[in-house]
Amino acid sequence: MSEYLFEAKTISGEKIAGTLEAVDMKEALEMLKQQKYTPLALEKKRTMLDTLMGWMNRVSVGDLAVFSRQLAIMVEAGFPLIQAVKTSVNQTGNEKLKETLALIAVDLESGLSLSMSTAKHPSVFSRFMVNMIRSGEETGQLNRVLREVAEELEKQKGFQSKINSVLMYPIFVLLMMVAAMVVVMVYVIPQLKTLFDDLGAELPLATKMLIAVSDFTVNYWYIVLIGAAIIVGLIVSFLRSDYGLEWKDRNILRVPVVGKLVLMSSMMRFSRTFGMLVDGGIAILDAIEITA
After folding, report:
1. Given phi > 0 = left and psi -120 to 50 = alpha, else beta, which region is 36?
2. Distance from C-alpha of 287 to C-alpha of 276, rounded to nearest angstrom
3. Residue range 19-46, pLDDT digits in tens
4. Hey, which of 86, 115, 287, 288 would disulfide with 133, CB 3.0 to 4.6 Å?
């Protein structure tokens, strides 16, 4: 059982707020309706475990593509939009998306449009998707726009898979190099040190330094792990900063093969996204900003 925070309106029009326990978002909504409440807001009270699971259970491009296509089919078949979204809640397997769609259903019942409801969840729905939905609502062609969004997301998913396949080999090689270096430091060099000690030979400075590093790694491995974690944390923090992002993006274009791949993929995404927004009726300046 999970605890949910809610805001609702009674039959008399009075606004109330409180908490309730339910298995999932759908059951929480049903409990409010059984009490004759009109839900205005409903949110799961998050624990540290929920935050961790939410990060691990992020909504993928593929999940959004399936949702868009399912919603387009149901709208085209004449389903009321609220009913179509509620049906999508039961059909999606991603818990994060399921919870988000349940909240969107609450917003739709309170009178918000689909574009306004999705805009409240920027971690799930991009500005591109929100504005495409808005253009579909304004032109009365929501089902067509949703199909186009689904096709674009499916293309993005396919392209991401190709990119991941290209990068998989160099990442694997890098990991193998790190693993080999650890094995050498922890197992090979200590055995060579014993051999050198038995021979009593005078070792070069470089060899002495390598043996010292190996000894430190074996005897103080926890300090090495902590130091490595700190270094990785500093690098990640730097790359997430404004200056770090600019530095990374500026220099990655200079990397052979990878730079050209990043440039071409960015140009492809720009062309597709910009073209779809303009075709959907979004003003050119707005379309450029959204694409950026």
Report:
1. left
2. 9
3. 888 877 777 777 887 888 877 666 677 6
4. 115
In angstroms, rounded to a whole number, what is the distance separating the alpha carbons of residues 103 and 24?
Answer: 12
Question: For the chain, what are the domain ranges?
Answer: 2-45, 60-157, 166-269
Radius of gyration of the chain (CA): 27
Which residues, 6+ apart, have CB-to-CB distance to 147 below 8 Å?
68, 69, 72
Q: Are 59 and 94 in contact (CB under 8 A)?
A: yes
The per-residue pLDDT for 46 is 62
User: How confident is the model at residue 177, as a pLDDT?
Assistant: 92
Helices (H) and strands (E) in the chain, counts: 14, 3
pLDDT at 176 over 90: yes
Cα separation, 177 vs 187, whole angstroms: 15
Q: Which residues pair with 2 in a beta bridge?
A: 22
Determine the average pLDDT of the residues in 94-103: 85
Q: What is the dihedral of CA 207, 212, 215, 221, to 10 degrees?
A: -120
Q: What is the mean pLDDT of residues 145-152?
A: 87
Q: Taking 90 as the threshold, does the pLDDT of residue 144 lie above it? A: no
Dist. CA 138–CA 280, nearest whole Å: 10
Range list of H helices, 120-257:
127-139, 142-183, 189-199, 205-219, 221-240, 242-252
Q: What is the pTM of this model?
A: 0.59
Q: Tell me the percentage of the chain whose pLDDT exceeds 70.
A: 92
60-157: which CATH topology? Answer: Receptor-associated Protein (1.20.81)
Q: Which of 60, 53, 101, 55 is nearest to 81 (CA)?
A: 101
* C-alpha distance from residue 11 to each of 15, 38, 77, 200 (Å): 10, 8, 33, 93
Given the structure tokens 């769609």, which residue do they identify?
A: 101
How many other C-beta atoms lie within 10 A of the C-beta of residue 92? Answer: 20
